[in-house]
Amino acid sequence: MTTSPSPAIHVRGLQKAYQELPVLRGVDLDVARGSIFALLGSNGAGKTTLVRILSTLLRADAGTATVEGFDVATQSASVRESISLTGQFAAVDEILTGRENLVLVARLRHLADPGRIADDLLARFSLTDAGGRRVATYSGGMRRRLDIAMSLIGDPPVIFLDEPTTGLDPQARIEVWNAVRELAANGTTVLLTTQYLDEAEELADRIAILHEGVIIADGTLAELKQLLPPTKVEYVEKQPSLEDIFLAIVGHDRSADTAAAGTEN
Amino acid sequence: MNTRFFADTLVLVNRSLRHILRSPDTIITTAITPIAMMLLFVYVFGGALDTGSDSYVNYLLPGILLITVASGISYTAYRLFMDMKGGIFERFQSMPIARSSVLWGHVLTSVVANLISLAIVVLVALAMGFRTGAGVLSWVAVGGILVLFTLALTWLAVIPGLTAKSVDGVSGFSYPLIFLPFISSAFVPTEGMPGPVRAFAENQPVTSIVNTIRDLFAEQTIGNDLWIALGWCVGILVVAFALAMSTYRRKIS
C-alpha cells in the first residue's frame, strides 16, 4: 500500500517526561490512512504514554502530533471526534450487560438508534447470546471483543489499541486479530502497541520499534528484515509449536486465520 | 455544548442509577448504620439522656439523617474510584462528550441514592414513634437543606474518589464526617459539655443544620440557625466544588 499524501497520524519531535524521568525523547512517526501500524517495544518503552498523548489523555512537553489533521493539544475536541481508544485494561462496565455497554457508548456519541447499533455489533463480534448477561460474567476474550466493539461505535477513522492481546489465551488472541484485520479492511486506520513480535508480524503493514523513548526502526516487515545480516539457509525440522498443539487439542481451526493473514513467505 | 452537557449527563446518571439498582445493598448498608445508631440511642441510652424534649426519637432524627448522608457519600467516592481504576473513565475522556458530565453523572446519582436512604431512615423513625406536625412547606425546607448538604458532601467525596490510591483510602475519608455529629447538638444538648468541647460543638456546621431541621419538624420559629446552616452548606459546596474541579482538571490534562 502506498502512503497517502496526508497521513492519518503525524508525530514530530514528541517529548514527555514524568518529573525528572524522560519517557519520550523526540518521537517521529507517520501512520498512513487505512493501514495497521504496530508500535513495538518492551515494557516501559513509552508505548502507552505515546498512545495517551495521541488520544488527548495526556499533554506532551514538546513536539507536535496531529490525528486526522487535528492538533492533539489545540484541537483536542476534534481529535476525540475522530478517534477511539481501547486501553490496556478492558474499559467496559462490569455491572451493565454487554448490550447496555454498547448502547451507553452509542448514546454518548449521539447516534440515532443505539439499540440497533448494539445488536449489529453483538452479532459481528459473536456476542449476541451473551448480550443480555452482565459483563462481570464474561471471559477475558469476550471482554476484549466487547471492548473493541465499543471502540467501533460511530465509525471513528482512527483506532488506538494499546496492547490488545496482553493477558489473553491463544484462542482469544486470534479472535482479536481477526477483529483488527476486519477493521483495516474497512478502511480504519489502526495504531496498535504490542510487546509480542509475532503479533506485529501477523497484523501490521508497518512496524516501528520504540526503545527508551525513541523510534529506533520504522518500516515494513520486509524493510526491517533487510536491517539484519543476509539470510542464511539452514535446514531445521519443522516442529509444531506449542500454540499449534494447544489449538489442535482444543479443536480450534487455525488454518482459516492464517489464510487471512497470507504474509508468510 | 450546553445541550450536549445535559444529554451526556443524563446518559451517565442513567448508567450509575442502574449500578445502584443492581446492587441495592449499597443503599441498604448506607441506611443500616444510622438505623442501628438510632435504635441504640433511643432504646438503650435514650432513657438516661435528658434532652428536654418529650420524645428522644424526635430529638435524635435530624442528626441521624446527617449521619446517613455522611455514610452514603462514601459510595459515591467508591464508584468514582472504580471508574478511574477500571479504564472506563479513560474511555469516557477520550470520547467526544462534555468532560464534566462524568463527574455530574456521579454527583446527581449520589443525590438520588441518598434521598432513597434518607426516606428509608425516616420510615423506620416513624415506626419508632417519630411524629411531626410539620406541613408541606417545612418538609420541602428539610428536603432542600438535606439535598444541599448531600451536594456539598458529595463534591467533597469526589476529591478522594479522584485521587485515592486504594479502596481503603476511598472509604476512610468519610469516618470523620460520620463522627462529627457526635460532637454537636445531634445526640445531646451542647449545654452540658465542658467549655472547649462546647465551643467546638456550637460552632461546627452539624449543630446549626441539626437545630434547623429539628425546629422545622417541631414547628418552631427558626432563628439564626437557618442562615448559619445555609452558610455552612453553601460554603462547603463552593469550596469542595472548586477543589474537585481543579483536581479533575489536573487529572485529565
Report on this structure.
Chain A has 265 residues and is of the alpha/beta class. Chain A contains ten helices and ten strands. Chain A has one domain (9-225, 235-260): P-loop containing nucleotide triphosphate hydrolases (Rossmann fold). In chain A, the strands form two sheets. Chain A has a six-stranded mixed sheet, with helices on both faces. Chain A has a four-stranded antiparallel sheet with strand order 2-1-4-5, with helices on one face. In chain A, helix 3 (98-108) runs parallel beside helix 5 and helix 5 runs parallel beside helix 6. Chain B has one domain. The longest helix of chain B is centred in the N-terminal third of the chain and has 31 residues, at 56-86. Helices cover 77% and strands 0% of the residues of chain B. Chain B is elongated and about 60 Å long. The A-B interface holds A 55-57, 59, 77, 80-81, 83-85, 87-96, 100, 104-105, 107-110, 134, 150 and B 4, 7-8, 11-12, 15, 18-19, 22-23, 86-88, 90-97, 252-253.
Query: How many distinct beta strands of chain A?
Result: 10
What is the overall pLDDT average of chain B?
Answer: 88
Structural class of chain A, please?
alpha/beta
Radius of gyration of chain A: 19 Å
Instruction: State the strand order across the main sheet of chain A.
Output: 6-7-8-3-9-10
Distance between the termini of chain B: 19 Å
Stretches with pLDDT under 50, minimum 5 residues of chain B = none
What's the average pLDDT of chain A? Answer: 84
Task: Just name the CATH architecture of chain A.
Answer: 3-Layer(aba) Sandwich
Q: What is the 3D shape of chain A?
A: globular
Work out the radius of gyration of chain B: 19 Å
Structural class, judged by helices and strands of chain B? mainly alpha
Termini separation of chain A (Å)? Answer: 18 Å
Measured as a percent range, the helix fraction of chain A is 25-40%
Report the portion of residues of chain A in β strands: 15-25%
Name the poorly predicted regions of chain A.
258-265
The CATH class of chain A is identified as Alpha Beta
